[in-house]
Amino acid sequence: MTTKPSKASGRVGLLGVGLIWGCMAPPGTNAEARAPTEEANGTSASLVTLVGPIAFVDGKAVPRTGKPIQVPTGCHVVRTDDSYDTMTSTAMIHVMVEPVSFAIPMRGGYNYYVERESTKSSGAGTVRYAAYERDASGNVIQTFGPIAPSAGREACQGL
Q: CB–CB of 102/147 below 8 Å?
């Protein structure tokens, strides 16, 4: 099933920022294996790669190393981080943003990406997030829209 692309956006006060993609290392590059947990939908037989500016998976903090992480197959609620750093030609800027959550039903044999895009507009910037399922060739198979900030694991029901 392919869903309609959807992006969440938020306003940030930011000067001199072009396009930024968060943590976009290719799959398999220094991936950190994470031990499957019983809470991960009861399936620990297969792990998939998750890449992006991720701070939490199923309400649990994950290392913010910028490297891909491994999670068990099954549906997971993934939340982005609430800040990032960027450079202008003269300074490093720390940007605070509203975290965005996605309910992503992860299947074996696919990789999952959460991408952040920042754009400048009249001294203020807009940050947009999107989540994708990609096959081994990098082709987008599904796009996932954000879920309500108050939604938890129940967002995975029916996916």
A: yes
